TrEMBL record:
Name of this chain's protein: Chromosome partitioning protein
Pfam families found in the cross-reference section: CbiA
Domain CobQ/CobB/MinD/ParA nucleotide binding: 4-181
Length: 211
């Protein structure tokens, strides 16, 4: 399966979700790969930090910020069970190419009105892509939810109509920031912790809907 994480608003945690999702799939025995389609190269930076720390390679990370992504990713997918695309910020031809490459598009949104409003253009792009790829699946995933806040509880109701929101959501947790800085995963920093459990639940929901 090819999963693309996209949102035109930067700073929503796409790279963290992409690396953690790939890591979770790899831990389950699958051959996983991350395609870094963000010109900023954040997933590549994470992979480099991991290598510099002498940690074992869990999955490959390939930089591919090109508008021909949709034509190139199928070749990459032949050598992997699952490919996770860390998409670019902003609505661009590269974002459109990422959508066309995917079987499933995940739109990470933080529980903030600004994030909710900003997701409308990605939803529109997905609608356009479905004219060419009717089987394309898409869903919101609530990321960096602060437990106990009103907006954290109500964000699903505020999302644009037309796409579902996954049941599994991801909390705002310090361990995710530490994972970015160290090239590790939450499951390595806090095995069995809340963050690791959230990622496991997210991966299970995604894979459960892939049949």
């Amino acid at each position: 399966m090819i999963v693309a994480l996209l949102n035109q608003k930067g700073g929503v945690g796409k790279t963290t979700l992409a690396t953690h999702l790939a890591g979770e799939l790899a831990a389950a025995g699958a051959r996983a790969a991350v395609v870094d389609a963000d010109p900023q190269g954040s997933a590549l930076d994470w992979s480099q930090r991991r290598a510099e720390s002498g940690l074992p390679r869990l999955f490959g990370v390939l930089g591919l910020p090109r508008e021909t992504l949709h034509a190139e990713v199928p070749d990459i997918a032949r050598g992997a069970d699952h490919v996770v695309i860390d998409g670019p910020p902003r609505v661009t031809a590269l974002a459109r190419s990422s959508i066309l490459a995917a079987d499933l598009v995940l739109i990470p949104v933080q529980p903030s009105p600004y994030d909710v409003w900003a997701s409308a253009e990605i939803v529109a792009l997905i609608g356009e892509a479905r004219l060419f790829k009717p089987q394309l699946r898409a869903a919101f995933v609530v990321n960096r939810r602060i437990v106990g806040t009103i907006i954290g509880r109500d964000v699903r109701a505020a999302l644009p109509e037309g796409l579902p929101a996954l049941t599994a959501d991801i909390g705002q947790r310090v361990v995710f920031a530490e994972s970015v800085a160290t090239g590790r995963l939450a499951s390595e920093l806090e095995p069995g912790g809340a963050a690791a459990q959230e990622i496991t639940a997210l991966a299970a929901e995604i894979m459960g809907g892939s049949s």
